Amino acid sequence: QVQLAESGGGLVQFGGSLRLSCAASRPQFRNYAMDWYRQAPERPRVWVARITTAGTADYADSVKGRFTISKDSDGNTAYLQMNNVTFEDTAVYYCTSRTIWGRGTRDTVSA
């Protein structure tokens, strides 16, 4: 079974940028769509963005215009570029494809 692993989280200043990565153990994203979700402290996990096999992207309203989802042509790695971050972007970010989830990477926005 394919495994997903997120990376790139950390501490970022308000208004700054961060890029998250999701690495698959095999070219998952060539054949399947992938999504990013996030879970803020004491909040439910919510959908953030999706990229289809054709490369079409879609975003939650809360991140539209600030976040960009992308993937490598080899289908092994997907990304979430986060720009102009706000305190509401503080969360654990998860990537998922089909029913497979990574363990998440934590992003904290500081003043």
Structure, described:
This protein is mostly beta strands and 111 residues long. Helix content is 4%, strand content 50%. The protein contains one helix and eleven strands, in the order βββαββββββββ. It has one helix at 28-31; strands spanning 4-7, 11-13, 18-24, 34-39, 45-51, 57-59, 67-71, 77-82, 91-97, 100-101, 105-110. Strands 2, 4, 5, 6, 9, 10 and 11 form a seven-stranded mixed β-sheet that branches. A hairpin with a 2-residue loop joins β9 and β10. The longest helix is centred in the N-terminal third of the chain and has 4 residues, at 28-31. It starts with a strand and ends with a strand. The model has no long low-confidence stretch (mean pLDDT 96).
Q: Brief description of this entry?
A:
With 111 residues, this protein is mainly beta. Helices cover 4% and strands 50% of the residues.
